[in-house]
Input
Amino acid sequence: MTGLSDPFNRPINYLRISVTDRCNLRCVYCLPPEGISLLHHSEILTYEEISTIAGLAAELGINKLRLTGGEPLVRARLSELVGMLAGIEGIDDISLTTNGILLKDYAAELKQAGLKRVNVSLDSLNQRKFQRIARHDKLNDVLQGIEAAKRCGLNPVKVNMVVMRGINDDEVIDFARLTITEGWHVRFIELMPFAVDNPPDGHSVAGKGSLHPGFLSADHIRERLTVLGKLEPTPSITGNGPARYFRFSKASGTVGFITPISRHFCFSCNRLRLTAEGKLRPCLLSDSEVDLRQPLRSGASPRKLKNVINGAIKAKPRQHELDRGQGSGKRMMSQVGG
Ligand code: SAM
Output
């Protein structure tokens, strides 16, 4: 293994794997209320196929995997997949991004199977608001899931909040306070304009919804947090992501900012994405993708499959173009392994 890098000399060592396009929430910025047309079961990669691809990627130099979706925990027996991936030589970190609803049921077995850590998406601490954003009344399940993950040692548990002006931005201080009182690691994410109708100039989030949120930059959020004290930069906690981290002086937790819009981090992008139906995407925010499922199912040799992976890496764009008015492609976050 010599290590992978793209045409812009960025090392590529991180693969995000979407295990399903299904989700048990309908967050207003992510999915329409009626959901999306779903893949047939036979179109979705089996666990064996995912493992084969991860194994080839590991031989090429990938050493970190993250499972995502859709909602990864709605796929049956996810811990079996974790166990298979954990057995691949060269893979030394497996993490999960989840909405947390089912985490209390699965945290222990996932940890046992080899999962290292989880990121939990949580956009409101207020039950009614949670329901408006996620279109389901599941706040308590998520909070229980976060506690279960901590108890099982899936640490650090990072809590990701997508901030929307006029929707949940009044809660950024409450979330940040939890880094002091509860040691939470909270990351504020800038709203991205996905195929759901949610332009960053902020006039709607999803379809005909009655919500009128908008983009709020990380600098604005940070400014608001000064009422809690001074935020000092702190080294990145465990992980491979693009967040910049800070800490209040008395906090054991951290505040992170993920700024795909106001300060993109493409220059340090180290990742590839595998969609649930087996397409490899070099960039979340571009529709370019290469198919691995068809060659895999028609018996292509490992060398051929590795060539396909290398082809995706060669196609990695220098940077996304959201700030130049280019959209995020035709597909939604839940379809491309967000
Ligand atoms: N279901 C899992 C979850 O909720 O974490 C994994 C998939 S979800 C698509 C992954 C992350 O993408 C979540 O943190 C979600 O909030 C975020 N996300 C989805 N659409 C987004 C958007 N338009 N802008 C910013 N973040 C978005």
The two ends are 27 Å apart (CA to CA).
